[in-house]
Design goal:
This protein is an alpha/beta fold. It is about 35% helix and about 25% strand. The chain is globular and about 55 Å long.
């Protein structure tokens, strides 16, 4: 019998993960797996715990209890968590670009400083990823000369430049004007088509429905329901899921 194929093994695994901030328990015994090449979208009301789950997966927060594995790295062991740095990419709501650097400079900085690449190789890598997000012609523009959507695409290029195995997106379109959302979600769809493993927290239900392999609905710190997009958006089993979906789709 052949061994289990790579895509069948979870690249991220959470077991019994709980987290509190002060006296507020924001995650309660979360069990969740993400497969290699899967696009997992986390939805739910503000305060439901979805961003905390994502930040724990990305190594930006530590759980109070439970196990968190990313690849072969146990993130629940604080001594090991730094091992995933450089293997995951993170895109936040805020673009966090350096205003005194061009788009190209923002992308090459980490390659030169953290990866110790020589400037010529870093420039080539940066131009490749800027081209991938449709911004090769804006490489020499500063942040102030770019729209919000273009700045967020530079942030995505910066994350892609380190060739991550997993990309995390935490409300990557929330700070954008509505007409600029599409250019960012189209880049994210392109990454999904290329087989990038992605975990996405978003309020963009169209993206979740069209692009996700699996949607997780979180409510009050627990996973209330998860399944394929059509199940979640067309025939959810959980009453809280139904209420949330109807509210956001009506809105």
């Amino acid at each position: 019998m052949s061994s289990q194929p790579e895509y069948a093994r979870p690249i991220i695994s959470l077991a019994g993960v709980s987290k509190s901030f002060g006296s507020t328990r924001v995650l309660k015994e979360i069990d969740l797996e993400v497969r290699s090449g899967e696009v997992l979208v986390l939805i739910g009301a503000s305060g439901s715990g979805k961003s905390t789950v994502l930040r724990i997966m990305a190594g930006l927060e530590t759980s109070d209890s439970g196990e968190v594995w990313v690849g072969d790295v146990p993130l629940h062991d604080p001594r090991r968590s730094r091992e995933i740095r450089g293997h995951v990419g993170m895109v936040f709501q805020q673009f966090n670009l350096f205003p005194h650097k061009t788009a190209l400079g923002n992308v090459t900085l980490a390659l030169i400083k953290a990866r110790k690449m020589n400037p010529a190789d870093a420039r080539k890598r940066a131009m490749d990823v800027l081209d991938r997000v449709g911004l090769a012609d804006r490489a020499e523009h500063y942040a102030s000369q770019l729209s919000g959507g273009q700045q967020q695409r530079v942030a995505i290029a910066r994350a892609l430049a380190v060739e991550p195995r997993i990309m995390f997106f935490d409300e990557a379109t929330s700070a954008l004007d509505p007409e600029l959302v599409g250019e960012v979600t189209e880049v994210m769809r392109g990454l999904a088509r290329d087989g990038m493993t992605m975990v996405v927290v978003t309020h963009e239900m169209g993206f979740a429905r069209k692009t996700a392999d699996r949607v997780v609905f979180m409510d009050k710190g627990v996973i209330a329901e998860h399944g394929e997009p059509e199940q979640i958006f067309v025939s959810p089993a959980n009453e809280r899921t139904r209420q949330f979906v109807h509210r956001v789709l009506d809105h």
